[in-house]
Design a protein that fits this description.
about 100 residues
Length: about 100
């Protein structure tokens, strides 16, 4: 699992500096990595129990959306506050081998 965190001010800077660039509008984080002299970039290590590079929770395609929708369909009714450990357990029990990146 991973996450990127940015201040509102940094995102506003990127919007202002890259106005008209569709790449940075959809993926503003790329600008931070392209300009490390302007922004402080750091890494927080994922706890080992959550480290699952095989489990992608991004939504960039219809297939990814359908996968996440199935997570909510299965987990949310029983526990609206489900945790990443619930997702991992569900995935390992029901999805292993069914997805191309699993």
């Amino acid at each position: 699992m991973g996450v990127e965190v940015f201040s509102l001010q940094a995102l506003e800077d990127v919007r202002r500096l890259t106005e008209g660039n569709p790449k940075n509008r959809e993926h503003p984080h790329t600008y931070f990595y392209e300009h490390p002299e302007r922004y402080k970039i750091g890494t927080v290590q994922c706890p080992p129990e959550f480290s699952r590079p095989d489990l992608v929770l991004d939504v960039n395609t219809q297939e990814e959306y359908e996968f996440l929708a199935s997570i909510y369909e299965h987990l949310h009714p029983k526990n609206p506050n489900f945790h990443i450990t619930d997702i991992i357990q569900w995935h390992d029990k029901t999805m292993k081998g069914k997805r191309k990146n699993a």
